[in-house]
Design goal:
It is elongated and about 70 Å long. By secondary structure, the chain is α+β, with helices and mostly antiparallel strands. The two termini are 27 Å apart. The protein has helices at residues 12-22, 33-40, 67-74, 90-97, 113-122, 135-138, 143-163, 173-186, 248-266, 274-287; strands at residues 27-30, 48-52, 56-60, 80-83, 103-107, 126-130, 191-192, 197-200, 221-226, 228-230, 233-234, 237-242, 299-301, 308-312, 325-328, 331-334, 338-341, 344-348, 353-355. The protein is built from ten helices and 19 strands. Strand 3, helix 3 (67-74) and strand 4 form a beta-alpha-beta unit.
Length: 367
């Protein structure tokens, strides 16, 4: 495995503080774990982060008394540790550290109504909902982030190459998925990015089918959608295979989706609207008469979350910039025929894009 490029964490709190100033907030309470990790380097399973104009407090519990300072220091972050205990809740710890009258932004998409009520009861401050406060900072990936995503993609590529021939032996969908997941772990992945999709025959017409005990058989289209997790960063790739000769409408569908996916990738460039990528793929499929069978968005961002901004869809408002990492994954799904989806993860470059997933798009499993 290639040595990982360092991730640059130290300047992220500076950027967040500029956003607080822009939004007239005195402080922000960050409760989404991936956002806490992005800002501090802390990887624990329980944490909140309070950020003011000149201080940061990482609130976690006693399990991470030693881990939290080590990880934040390694990331170059000046962050005070505050331990949540049976008698010191997040709300009470915040109350100790904030002055009267402060405006505090909270992540509206990550706080329940009950949690908000608890905060409001003990804090005299003005609580203000925010959206995408940190997610906007995460849109552009630095070299270290792209390096991790690319290596996660390389692990997935290699793992599929190791196990793809198994399809010719009529394994169950579950068995093939298990072999693929195991290969990724053996090659260095910390975990799979999400539940691996292996959908064969009629199941391939279900975009998010779960692997079943159905045996993969001759004449099947098989959709395999999977990814590897490496040092917190995800990969995402879909390939569709044909068991035996691919002909007739199945061949037509495969070639159509391959054409749409290639056109979508070629449209990726800085300054291009994410909705345009969706339109390019969708137009190719609609012009062939299968528009109603393309029933999901064309893609999404990939990073610390498997699905993150920007959306690549009809309604997306995002304009691509260098450093954005997105998927391009059109699909066509016909209940009586089967489904085809082809997906790559790509990074937007200064003059176009670079594919991070590179496994062959041929429909034939290696013999």
């Amino acid at each position: 495995m290639t040595e990982l490029v360092p991730v640059l964490v130290a300047d992220r709190l500076v950027k967040l503080r500029a956003r607080l100033d822009q939004d007239s907030l005195d402080a922000a309470l960050i409760t989404t774990l991936t956002n806490v990790r992005y800002l501090t380097g802390f990887t624990g399973s329980f944490a909140a982060l309070l950020v003011t104009s000149d201080e940061a407090f990482l609130l976690t519990d006693g399990r991470y008394r030693e881990q939290a300072p080590l990880q934040t220091q390694a990331a170059g972050i000046e962050c005070q540790l505050a331990l949540v205990t049976a008698t010191a809740s997040i709300a009470s710890l915040l109350q100790e550290r904030l002055g009267d009258g402060w405006s505090v932004g909270f992540e509206a998409g990550n706080i329940t109504w009950e949690q908000h009520r608890g905060l409001a009861e003990v804090l005299p401050q003005k609580l203000l909902p925010t959206t995408n406060l940190v997610e906007d900072l995460r849109l552009v990936k630095d070299d270290g982030e792209v390096c991790r995503i690319e290596q996660a993609c390389a692990i997935a590529d290699e793992a599929l190459g190791e196990v793809v021939a198994l399809m010719n032996e009529s394994p169950s969908e579950q068995r093939f998925g298990l072999e693929l997941d195991t290969a990724m772990r053996r090659l260095g992945a910390a975990e799979r990015s999400f539940e691996t999709i292996v959908a064969s025959g009629p199941n391939s017409a279900l975009p998010h089918a779960r692997p079943s005990q159905r045996a993969i058989g001759s004449g099947d289209l098989v959709v395999v959608d999977f990814g590897a997790l490496l040092d917190g960063y995800h990969s995402d790739m879909t390939r569709t295979f044909s068991i035996g000769r691919i002909a007739g409408e199945r061949r037509e569908l495969f070639d159509l989706v391959a054409t749409a996916q290639a056109a979508g990738c070629e449209a990726v460039a800085p300054g291009v609207a994410a909705s345009h990528i969706d339109e390019v793929c969708r137009t190719v499929i609609a012009d062939a008469g299968y528009g109603d069978a393309f029933m999901h968005g064309t893609g999404h961002g990939v990073g610390l979350d498997i699905h993150e901004a920007p959306a690549v869809s009809r309604t997306s408002k995002s304009i691509l910039e260098p450093g954005y990492v997105i998927t391009v994954e059109p699909g066509v799904y016909l209940p009586d025929v089967g489904g085809v989806r082809i997906e790559d993860t790509v990074v937007v470059t200064g003059d176009g894009y670079r594919a991070l997933t590179n496994y062959s798009k041929s429909p034939k499993p290696v013999q």
